[in-house]
Amino acid sequence: MIYIVQSVVEVPLEKVEEVIGLYRNRSRSVDKQPGFLSFQLLQNEPKPEELIVHMTWESKEHYVAWVTSEDFKRIHELEKKYPDQELASIKPVVRRYHVRAD
């Protein structure tokens, strides 16, 4: 069953383009994970400071394997050390969905 995970972050408006640049240049290690299907960074049209990381997985089990992997932990530790501590301190709201029809 397809599984979608969205991480919603509110970024200061003056830093939105910087964050978009970070995602455009992401490591792409998640792309190699078993069960990974796609990644998109979405920007809310009426509220441009809201960015959503949208990932699609073959199953919840594949997603859980990713978030418990050493690679995931390494990447997220690097994020905490980002020089801009205002950005590093932003906590996403994570939403998870099972696709029931398409």
From TrEMBL:
Name of this protein: ABM domain-containing protein
Top-level lineage group: Bacteria
Domain ABM, first and last residues per copy: 3-94
PANTHER family cross-referenced by the UniProt entry: SIGNAL TRANSDUCTION PROTEIN TRAP
Annotated InterPro entries: ABM_dom, Dimeric_a/b-barrel, Heme-degrading_MO
Stretches assigned to coiled coil: none
Taxonomic classification: Bacteria, Bacillati, Bacillota, Bacilli, Bacillales
